[in-house]
Amino acid sequence: MSNLRLIDETKITSSVSSINITDVFSSDFDIYRITCTDLSLTGTTYVDVNMRLINSSGSVITSSSYTYGYRLMLSWMSYVDTTSASNSVIYRAFAETTDQSPEVAGSSLWVFNPYNASEYTQLLIQNCQAYGGSYHTNMHGGAVLKVNTSITGFQAIESDSSRPMASGTFRTYGLAVDK
């Protein structure tokens, strides 16, 4: 039998352009789940909320070592595929959002082997967002950090550098296997 065990809950309570969630990945688990709910930003132009990983030394990995591929399903057309083989962020891992009522954004990520320094950290990512009454998207895909290093946390960072996150809740769970 398996179950999810809550490791950390971090709430955004004041405007921040980025938030570091540290010491959530360890040797205790091989698989983790991250959820982000009720994410909102200031201002009325949409902004992507990207992700970076944090190594065991506490440093945010900003090198172009992330690769990803997504299918974006859009309310105004069928879909768009987006990929990168070399990027400094995991693009739109926590959706995109704005402050246009009605507004909602949420994400669910599975993270595989982050703490194991001999394997790449891999992620499965799903998110959805809606705002302004007519803008609705869903995104499904995956990402890989192409560096063998021990990962202990992650960063959520907005892409505009001037549109801080106003609210949201990040929860990190470990997937336990009971024997």
What can you see in these coordinates?
It is a single chain. With 179 residues, this protein is an all-beta fold. It has no helices and twelve strands. The strands form two sheets. It has an eight-stranded antiparallel beta sheet, with no helix packed on it. The chain has a four-stranded antiparallel beta sheet with strand order 2-11-4-7, with no helix packed on it. A hairpin with an 8-residue loop joins strand 8 and strand 9.
Rg value: 16 Å
What spatial form do the alpha-carbon principal axes imply? globular
Mean pLDDT: 89
Count of alpha/pi helices: 0
Please give the alpha-carbon distance between the first and last residues: 7 Å
Strand order across the largest sheet: 1-12-3-8-9-10-5-6
Q: Total strand count, please? A: 12
Label the structural class. Answer: mainly beta
Q: What low-confidence regions span 5 or more consecutive residues with pLDDT below 50?
A: none
Describe the largest sheet. Answer: 8 strands, antiparallel
Fraction of residues in H or I helices = under 10%
Amount of beta strand: over 45%
- Give the SSE order as H and E letters: EEEEEEEEEEEE
Write out key terms for the chains shown:
mainly beta, 12 strands, globular, 4-stranded antiparallel beta sheet, 179 residues
Q: Briefly, what is this?
A:
The protein is mainly beta and 179 residues long. The protein contains no helices and 12 strands. Strand 5 and strand 6 form a beta hairpin.
List the helices and strands and how they pair.
Elements: E1 2-12, E2 18-21, E3 31-41, E4 47-55, E5 66-74, E6 79-87, E7 96-97, E8 103-112, E9 121-131, E10 135-145, E11 151-158, E12 165-177
Antiparallel strand pairs: 1-12, 2-11, 3-8, 3-12, 4-7, 4-11, 5-6, 5-10, 8-9, 9-10
